[in-house]
Amino acid sequence: MTAPGADLPGQADLARLAQASGIALESYRQAHVSACVARALARHETASVAGLARLCRRDPAVRATLRRSILVPVTGLFRDPEQFELLGERVLPALLRTRSGLSVWSAGCSDGSELYSVVLMLRRLGALEGSRLIGSDLSGGRVELARQGAVVSEAVRREATPVLHWERRDLLREPSPPGTFDLVLCRNVAIYFEPPAQEALYAKLAAALRPGGVLLLGACEQLLAPDQFGFAAAGPHLYRKVAA
Ligand SMILES: C[S@@+](CC[C@H](N)C(=O)[O-])C[C@H]1O[C@@H](n2cnc3c(N)ncnc32)[C@H](O)[C@@H]1O
After folding, report:
1. Residue 216 sits in a domain of what CATH number?
2. Is the CB of 70 under 6 A from ligand 1?
């Protein structure tokens, strides 16, 4: 590939770049990868994908820029507010009917805004102290930001720290965190994956939930056949794991 455009990098080039960037590029939507690669080639005035891979290995700044472009760390507190309305008014109170605290995983948590939004809601419901919340992301930089908790007040951060755990984890290449969860949020992550990688991810998320537990996907994401993963539709972009 020599000019910005939508050409797909060849398999060998893609494999080289995947290794240099530390991202399983073959599992991401190829149109997305091609657009990111084209921008990187133009930005660094590089003529080939193999050259870009070499540059990534040599220069951490080039690697970081390419990773950021592919991973798309866009997020925000209460992003897509109608989803949090649904969580706060229906989903969390229903889950809390049978337990005093919840086990929650934000898979692809970026800077932690998504999980801190859940923290604020559990706090309001008086259920933060007995809960266990895990945020994971492929980007170590985002995980570090999440750990710093800059998106909430110092008081909330201090209160939440004992029940929060942040970790770097690749949803494509690593297992789920240990334990089973009442609620998994995986929003605006699978949208960048190719269909086979999406399916593998949804199966992994289903296995991480206890029966009766709930998966929330992003506002642009849905399961076409929820029963394929042992889910029943429970609301917009919301799926309840059915008992085996
Ligand atoms: C668009 S953000 C979504 C953040 C948050 N879930 C939200 O909706 O506000 C996508 C996040 O998924 C993470 N991500 C992408 N691929 C991943 C992977 N293979 N494993 C773990 N996290 C990944 C990115 O680093 C990024 O922080």
Report:
1. 3.40.50.150
2. no
